[in-house]
Amino acid sequence: MVTNHRLASVPALRGLPPRLVLAVLGVAGALATGAGCSSSSSSGPQDAGVDAPRDAAQPPDGSAGDAVTPGDAAGLDALPGDASRGPAYEQGTAGCPTPDGGARVVKLVNNCATKRWFKFDGRTTPLAARPTGCPWAGQSCTDIDGVAQCTAKAQTASPTVDPGQVYCKQNAAGTGGTCACNLHVELAAGQAQEIVLPGGADWVSATGRLATGCNALGARCSLGNDAANNSVFEFTYDQSGVTYDISAVDAWTAASPVGMKSCGVAGNGSAYSCKGAGCRFDVATQCPDGTAAFAAAPDSCGTCAVHDVGGKQVIADGGCGSCPNGSSANLIPTGTVFNPSGAGGAEWSWPGSPDFARAFGASEGARAQRRFACDSTTDNSSCTAAASGTAANTCLGGCMLCQIANPGKYPYSPECIKYCCPDRGGEPYDGGTYHYDSQGCTALGVQRATDYTVALKAACPFVYTYGYEDHSSTFTCDQSASLLIQACPDATDFPAQH
Known about the structure:
- The protein is of the alpha+beta class.
- A hairpin with a 2-residue loop joins β10 and β11.
- Strands 1-8-2-24-13-14 form a 6-stranded mixed β-sheet, with no helix packed on it.
- The two termini are about 45 Å apart.
- The chain has 9 helices and 24 strands.
- About 10% of the residues lie in helices and about 20% in strands.
């Protein structure tokens, strides 16, 4: 059993000031934090001890009192330029986590003026990182990595508060499935929480997001309930090290401002080695609204010259003029091969017309109205265009905007495939059938040919704004590094640019 050596007892939490720091220690019933696993129907000393630090103004179901208002949308009311760098700095919780021997530590900090939920993907979160005190904890299941059985059991165990989707995970002994508690961490302004992975345990493909307006179990959030129409922060801990990034490929919301950095390792001097980055993009003022007040998307490379090389059409060196040549992965790089005949070569090929590919990213328009009001409390998140003068809470990227503008269409539909970059083969488009994957997406780079990327990259150059933008958005560090994730990030500790 993993023991909690940072907190002497759960009841002691009741006396902690708002600068609360918790350690979530997993496998066999360590600390039942209750984050995402305590409800009005829960009972017992563990749940009582964890509920105490909650914002006293929060209603019992957690459904109100923490909504993002336009003035707080980017956490700009308490960051540099004011008297304070934010509540976490005032309360002393903003710093890197304390090293813990060989354990890996992920520290979550809320530097916003209002409450935030840090919600982690139930598919990829290991048992060692999850709380253990939710009402359905330990119930058996057989549909490993499925949600049908455990969601039904969780709804029975928590009849008055919706638990959201609950996954069946392989138990620690590897002998069967167990209904796992969700890692949904509720933090009031200035609070922090540490997640400790004992013994250098891995956490592969971690995906988290920030949300507001959630119930007591971290579900039915008014904004950020799931990954759709949302940004995410991502990291992977394995034996080779840690990689981490912030992704706004789908969207950026009023709850999204976040920063990530590694702690305890100096790095090799590269801009992407053990460094930190933050994004404070403000939907209310910085999201394109379709008018000339915002920079247009870059011109397409419709004038690119091509020449014949062994029967293949190749973009000529310098033929794209001012269009990027591949170093920025935009539009068509110099040397891209169009191979109508499918003859030989390891390079990506498009079996259609080079004319189509040269103008691939131009059809969405130089400017688009991307400001939307989205409500994620329903089973199918709904988004409506924000009328002039009304508050928008979401800025939509190319893929999500295309699907909303074309109801019933999917990422692989001809209308949207070029903005969504799904890894699919055999899809028809413009008279051809082709395999569209990371290599093809990079070769055409059409998502960058939108004003969404122009606007976000101007404010947050290290954030993913389209699929496979690894060259400017992925950070790496040594496996011994800890990770610090801050909502409403301070611009000094989490710079937008290095």
